[in-house]
Design brief:
Layout (H helix, E strand, L loop, with lengths): L21 E2 L11 E4 L4 E5 L4 E3 L4 E5 L12 E4 L7 E3 L4 E3 L14 E7 L5 E8 L4 E3 L8 E4 L4 E4 L5 E6 L2 E6 L50 E5 L7 E6 L4 E5 L5 E3 L3 H4 E6 L6 E5 L7 E7 L5 E2 L2 E3 L5 E5 L9 E7 L2
Parallel strand pairs: 1-2
Antiparallel strand pairs: 2-3, 3-4, 5-6, 7-8, 9-10, 11-12, 12-13, 13-14, 14-15, 16-17, 17-18, 18-19, 20-26, 21-25, 22-23, 22-26, 24-25
Length: 339
């Protein structure tokens, strides 16, 4: 085989039908710029002065388009990245390497994708994680909610002063837990229904637009319950204004024990006219239940006050005696109960 010990200058002529040193191993003692074709891996290598570089594995196609440097339309570079270290473009500080991520679809309606990205923005790992059917978020150091999410029920449950929400069978129920506290103003635009047995209002001013307050609103059938208003007097005995359902009268107590009937015109007064032109004594039945009555007489014609003997014969009647018989219905009798 002929050996050339000096450079050959082809003066810009072509070197045709030449084979670039096909061999299965790299030549020994190479010099910078030396090339050979590895007929085992079918790759072309060039020596850069310190190592053999693969010239055939990374760029398989270049389509210039309107110009690569200017970023024109239709410009593209096709890279064939094998198992090697890849291509590093230092100008843009972008490393393109084989990350080992398998092409696939990650995540679903019951799972979430977990993606790992390196400093160059490459996806270096991709997996799928199942979504837990139960999620618990612990409360902080204060008294905030503990949220528990299950497959059937969503519950917000706290310690004190919280709101409880339950989701079950596609329905949402919201209710106050024991002893809730609302720090600001509360406005209820709709109707408010309280189902508990006790309602306590700690306020000094109550403004009601309704002009009628109904007590015993849940009563049905024949009336049987007393009803009224009781005044709390601290260390002193409470007083009460009530309707006595047994006696069908309004009454009050000033000592908390003994009740007095509240007098009205109908149950504390009585009036009638007497006189027939013949009799001088008349019995008047007033049914006021007491002898403590004031009796006054006046003439129905002149309207002057007249006097006669009055005897309170019982708690429900009295007798009036005249010196001469009054004419028919000439005397008006007025009876007023005292106490």
């Amino acid at each position: 085989m002929a050996r050339y010990l000096s450079n050959i200058d082809l003066a810009n002529n072509q070197l045709q039908n030449a084979a670039l040193h096909p061999t299965g191993t790299a030549p020994s003692n190479p010099v910078e710029g030396q090339i050979y074709f590895n007929n085992t891996s079918d790759k072309l290598f060039i020596y850069d002065g310190s190592a053999w570089l693969d010239l055939t594995g990374d760029i398989s196609e270049v389509i210039a388009g309107d110009g690569l440097t200017g970023g024109g339309s239709n410009a593209s570079v096709t890279l064939d990245v094998g198992a090697g270290t890849g291509i590093t473009v230092n100008a843009n500080d972008i490393a393109i390497t084989n990350t080992g991520v398998t092409a696939a679809s990650y995540g679903s309606s019951t799972a979430i994708p977990v993606i790992t990205v390196n400093a160059q923005g490459q996806i270096t790992a991709a997996t799928t994680a199942a979504i837990s059917t139960d999620l618990t978020i612990a409360a902080d150091s204060g008294s905030n909610d503990i949220v528990s999410i299950g497959t059937d029920t969503l519950t917000f449950a706290g310690t004190a002063n919280e709101i409880e929400t339950t989701v079950s069978n596609n329905q949402i129920q919201i209710g106050l837990v024991d002893n809730p506290t609302i720090g600001g103003n509360l406005t209820v635009s709709g109707n408010l229904t309280v189902s508990g047995t006790t309602t306590t209002v700690n306020t000094e001013t109550i403004n009601l637009a309704d002009n009628i307050i109904t007590l015993n609103s849940n009563a049905t059938g024949s009336a049987s319950e007393n009803a009224g208003i009781e005044v709390e007097r601290g260390d002193d005995t409470n007083v009460t204004l009530r309707w006595n359902e047994t006696n069908d009268v309004w009454e009050l107590t000033e000592d908390g024990t003994n009740y007095e009937q509240i007098q009205t015109v109908s149950n504390s007064t009585f009036s009638t006219s007497i006189g027939d032109g013949t009799n001088t004594s008349y019995t008047v039945t007033h049914n006021l239940g007491t002898r403590d009555v004031i009796v006054q007489l006046f003439d129905n014609s002149s309207y002057d006050t007249v006097f006669a003997d009055v005897e309170r014969t019982s708690t429900s009647a009295l007798t009036i005696v005249f010196g001469s018989a009054p004419t028919t219905n000439d005397i008006r009798v007025l009876v007023s109960k005292i106490g």
